[in-house]
Recover the amino acids of this structure.
């Protein structure tokens, strides 16, 4: 059989069709003129005219290991030829081996035995984690952080602090109780880390001091809230890195109140921060870990949950407790297995920490050249640039948007010729560039990124 012919339409024709037939309900139209791309390689995307764009966000960390990573692609192709389709009610080798590797990573990192449950996306895995919590506790009241993001399905949006994701759709269950994330640059309590003695953690502890705070029944020795959803480094909230003792102090409070700790690693897992799990930096043991994005290096929408044996044993979480048609599909598990094998050969802990330290030094130098950069920080290759007014504090969302759009417009002068720059904007005030480059980014590519950022900050600030 001959292959189906490829149709190549002009960009103008495609835009007309997109405007008529595509829903605007996803995030494509956050940009007034959505960008078309047609090729990719390593750290670069290419538009329909083959113009290069250095990507410093890598599909929100879904492509940690570079575009068109041939090793992972070859494994996916081999699976296509061998067993491309299989209902998830049956077993195949890759599912078992991936489960073993991920469970052993949690055993290594946290010293805990557990099992893996697969699903098809980060929000869906969050939903599965909610089932695990409800099933184990019989309750559905959760805690989470302001600025936290866990997805936009009905259940996940209840523990995501942005009201705009819930406003038009009502409540699925009970909205989480949100507490301030330890955002030291913009401390919600007006404190400084050198003298606050972790005031933010103490405020969480105070919630349980008396029954009249509504969190704790002293007579029953029981909390109303049964799980706390965290991101070790707040991702969409602006790549905010908590102070070193925050999570260990928080977990002490949660353990005393028998509240489960659910670790959302969807963006930060798989060595984005220089550790396999970002929570490893903070010496904390989670009860549940949720992961996705980088599992297949962006080649298949698969995600998963690890939970402690007591929460997910066959007796506690029996067959049929959750299901998705494509949850452990053979293409996704094969790509995940190839990704995990790739990771084992790369020495990412050393590589990411070294590249991240170099990148952070360069953006610290960039900050000295631009008064509109208020704060920079990073953990591994999760880096942030907070865009502000010239007082280095007042958020400047308009300037961040302008730089973002100028990067996508392309044609930025550079030592490599005209270039585009792909960025992502996050943060509590939508004024933070959250940098998530490929984990194999080279020093030359980091220097190129700094050169492009320098040019954009200069041109966009001068033209305001």
């Amino acid at each position: 059989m001959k292959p189906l012919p490829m149709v190549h339409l002009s960009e103008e024709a495609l835009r007309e069709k997109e405007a008529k037939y595509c829903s605007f309900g996803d995030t494509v139209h956050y940009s007034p003129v959505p960008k078309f791309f047609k090729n990719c390689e390593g750290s670069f995307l290419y538009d329909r005219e083959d113009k290069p764009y250095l990507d410093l966000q890598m599909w929100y960390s879904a492509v940690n290991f570079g575009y068109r990573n041939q090793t992972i692609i070859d494994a996916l192709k081999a699976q296509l030829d061998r067993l491309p389709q299989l209902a998830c009610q049956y077993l195949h080798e890759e599912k078992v081996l991936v489960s073993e590797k991920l469970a052993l990573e949690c055993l290594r990192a946290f010293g805990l035995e557990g099992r893996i449950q697969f699903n098809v996306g980060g929000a869906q895995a969050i939903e599965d984690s909610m089932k695990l919590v409800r099933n184990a506790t019989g309750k559905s009241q959760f805690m989470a952080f302001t600025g936290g993001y866990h997805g936009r399905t009905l259940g996940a949006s209840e523990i995501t602090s942005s009201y705009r994701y819930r406003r038009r759709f009502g409540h699925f269950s009970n909205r989480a109780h949100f507490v301030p994330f330890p955002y030291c640059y913009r401390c919600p309590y007006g404190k400084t880390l050198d003298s606050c003695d972790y005031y933010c953690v103490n405020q969480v502890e105070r919630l349980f001091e008396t029954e009249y705070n509504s969190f704790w029944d002293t007579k029953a020795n029981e909390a109303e809230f049964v799980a706390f959803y965290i991101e070790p480094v707040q991702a969409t909230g602006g790549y905010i890195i908590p102070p070193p003792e925050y999570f260990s102090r928080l977990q002490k409070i949660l353990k005393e109140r028998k509240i489960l700790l659910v670790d959302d690693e969807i963006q930060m897992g798989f060595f984005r921060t220089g550790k396999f799990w970002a929570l490893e930096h903070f010496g904390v043991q989670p009860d549940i870990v949720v992961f996705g994005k980088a599992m297949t290096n962006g080649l298949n929408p698969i995600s998963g949950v690890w939970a402690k044996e007591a929460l997910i044993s066959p007796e506690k979480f029996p067959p049929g407790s959750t299901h998705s048609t494509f949850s452990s599909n053979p293409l996704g598990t094969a790509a995940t297995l190839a990704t995990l094998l790739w990771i084992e050969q790369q020495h990412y802990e050393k590589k990411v920490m070294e590249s991240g330290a170099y990148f952070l030094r360069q953006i610290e130098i960039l900050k000295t050249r631009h008064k509109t950069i208020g704060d920079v920080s990073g953990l591994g290759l999760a880096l942030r640039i907070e865009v502000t007014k010239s007082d280095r504090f007042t958020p400047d969302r308009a300037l961040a948007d302008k730089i973002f759009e100028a990067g996508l417009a392309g044609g930025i002068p550079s030592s490599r010729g005209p270039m585009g720059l792909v960025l992502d904007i996050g943060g509590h005030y939508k004024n933070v560039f959250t940098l998530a480059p490929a984990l194999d980014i080279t020093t030359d590519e980091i220097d190129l990124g700094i050169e492009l950022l320098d040019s954009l900050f200069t041109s966009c600030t001068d033209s305001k």
In short: Residues 384 and 434 are 5 Å apart (CA to CA). The mean pLDDT is 96.
